[in-house]
Amino acid sequence: MKLAGFTLIEVLVALAIISIGLLAIIKTASQNIQNTAYLQDKMTAMWVGEQVINEARVGLYQSAFAIEQTVKRATIMLGKEWAWNLKQDTTPNPRINKISIQVFSKGQEENRPPLIYLETYVYLPGV
After folding, report:
1. Three-state secondary structure call for residue 107
2. Is residue 1 part of a domain?
3. Mapping DSSP to helix (H, G, I), strand (E, B) and coil, where does residue 4 land?
């Protein structure tokens, strides 16, 4: 009389193969979640940078630039605090200034490179 079924070794090998496959799926999902969070932070940092550059273009930081060349402040956007450094430099053309901004996740200004770095040029009509 022959019994149908799997041996213990066959079952263990099948379970090992299934567990390796499931671990790969879990690892991929975890990396995907981390990448999504990073991209969300990078996009929010881009919005902060664009907002600050537009504020600088309309002259909101001219009084601060008169005192120092770099303005360091923080902004809250989407429930998270973002630190940024806005810097104004001269160019060979006295009517044009270069404005650059670095945006960091708050508390990581010294530890990591900026999430985003943007540059723009501003025309100074009164010069």
Report:
1. coil
2. no
3. coil
Say which CATH number the domain at 89 has. 3.30.1300.30
For 107, half-sphere exposure in the C-beta direction (CA atoms, 13 angstrom radius) is 2
Q: How far is CA 39 from the centre of its chain?
A: 6
At 4 the pLDDT is 76
Instruction: Report if pTM > 0.85.
Output: no
- What Å distances lie between residue 121 and 50, 53, 87, 91, 110, CA to CA? 13, 10, 11, 9, 26
Q: Report pLDDT digits (tens) over 96-113.
A: 999 999 999 987 777 789
| Residue 104 forms part of a structural domain | yes
Which of these, 123, 64, 74, lies nearest to 102 by C-alpha position? 74
Please count the structural domains in the chain: 1
Establish if 18 belongs to a structural domain.
yes
Q: What is the SS3 assignment for 114?
A: coil
- Alpha helical stretches, state H, 1-127: 8-57, 62-67
Q: What is the pLDDT of residues 78-88, one digit of tens each?
A: 999 999 999 99
What is the pLDDT, as a whole number, of residue 106? 83
